[in-house]
From TrEMBL, chains A, B:
Domain GHMP kinase N-terminal: 68-150
Pathway per the UniProt entry: Amino-acid biosynthesis; L-threonine biosynthesis; L-threonine from L-aspartate: step 4/5
Stated name of the protein: Homoserine kinase
Entry keywords, A to Z: Amino-acid biosynthesis, ATP-binding, Cytoplasm, Kinase, Nucleotide-binding, Threonine biosynthesis, Transferase
InterPro entries reported in the protein's UniProt record: GHMP_kinase_C_dom, GHMP_kinase_C_sf, GHMP_kinase_N_dom, GHMP_knse_ATP-bd_CS, Homoserine_kinase, Ribosomal_Su5_D2-typ_SF, Ribsml_uS5_D2-typ_fold_subgr
Amino acid sequence: MKEEVHVFAPATVANVACGFDILGFALEQPGDEIIMRRTRQCGVVIRKIFGDNGKLSCEAGLNVAGIAASHFLNNVQPGYGVEIELQKGMPIGSGLGSSAASATASLFAANILFDKPLNIMALLPLAMECEKAVCGTAHADNVGPALLGGFTLIRSYEPLDVVAIKTPDDLLCTVIHPHIEVSTEDARKILRKQIALKDAITQWGNVAGLIAGLMKSDYELIGRSLRDVIAEPVRSLLIPRFKEIQTAVLACGALGCSISGSGPSIFALTNDQNIAEEVGRIAQGEFQSAGLRSEVFISGINQNGPVLIEEE
Amino acid sequence: MKEEVHVFAPATVANVACGFDILGFALEQPGDEIIMRRTRQCGVVIRKIFGDNGKLSCEAGLNVAGIAASHFLNNVQPGYGVEIELQKGMPIGSGLGSSAASATASLFAANILFDKPLNIMALLPLAMECEKAVCGTAHADNVGPALLGGFTLIRSYEPLDVVAIKTPDDLLCTVIHPHIEVSTEDARKILRKQIALKDAITQWGNVAGLIAGLMKSDYELIGRSLRDVIAEPVRSLLIPRFKEIQTAVLACGALGCSISGSGPSIFALTNDQNIAEEVGRIAQGEFQSAGLRSEVFISGINQNGPVLIEEE
């Protein structure tokens, strides 16, 4: 049995324009790292947290990495204990699945530390429980792709039905994170509970087109399908310059551009490195002119999910 | 130039459970046949109609095969004339795309008769105009698959975006047509114009699952995805014994079972000939116990669309 493991788990983009509440994909970077060690005492201790600007609690029950490790121990290895060092490599509350990355890293680390009693799919319900503990709902559109890698469809929750969707090799994602806060709760509250059948049909036509485009490596179809007529028109109001950025990003050749998760981060997909970089410059410039600082991440689609970085 | 052509165009199943207004597929049988001949006089004459039990008009402007031929001549070959013999091989008003089959056969025949001035995709807008003339809306979920064959996604109407979806080779469809009438207009009127976001999410999760399942040849995923929470719960009220038939058909091993188009026909998909036949027996028995006669069609997915039967 190992005494210490060091793992990485990726940031994720949920919703993906037309796929509200059912689609997400994993990024190669950014992501969170965790070093986890066995301890003699049972239970979970968080030793250190880096990269969070002091935002996160070191109390194991108040931090999603700690909650995840506790879930794992309670469900799979009762009577054992671990300690955690968490390196946040991504902004918190940015719409990039920060809690999902930490929960995934923690569960993945614990599973390796105890000689893989569970397979990856069996970690998913535990990861969803962590989302419920910190966000209020056991959604899987971040933890699904964070754990499984790639592009993930959550077809159904009852029963849970998660489907891996093949993506073209050279798909690139630019994420721009403006330094404003949008709470997931607020972003969910402003959505209407009733929608027009006409809009729903538009959305499911686009969802079908996106899945077909990804599986056929048809970039034009992917681009035509990356439209959201349900959440984006409302949620984009919470993101300064969203419309200007989207218009300019599409004009410069990106396949599509929408809100990552519930925001405030914006993502764009392309299959061209130059366009991916230009998208970042355009968006950063727009945010700057609104007086906002922002960070840019450019990444391929992460096909692996969490990985072991080094062993003791 | 040919003087006479004889063509076949297939029946189609639109909506396909979760794909309301965006999906359809073509059947190998039944379908309509048309013999079309050039005439010296310009314009369109319908010479004979067989197999319609006297239901259809021989007035070219009142019959969709005549309307289609007129559209073709007006748009592509002005000053020319044709005469038509129409063999209806499928029930009218059954939810199997009867008007789409006749329009498709007529356009396909005229295009061959005049040495293919248009490609198949260019016939689609003309076929949609025919649907508008006879049904009130220029929908493409029957004429799309009737013309292109296979499983067809209508991602968008403005602009028109039609995507062929690969299907597994051994998919079989059983269609059961009960002898009752459901008008497309009534079936459309009873749908609510506003739907719950929750239900819309369920539906687009299933649409995404169905597309992925078809493209992966994953029969279980196809089966899990063939659910309609939007149109079927309302429209099935117009079809006696629908729920009993659906329950029994799924219990006997069909992948999925729902309403074909706006009904009253019911379709089920399977990859097993024995189950396809048993589905027909079950449904016919249920309809019979409700005092209704019905016909059963068992067919593979038609990958060709309309075909030339013989040349002069």
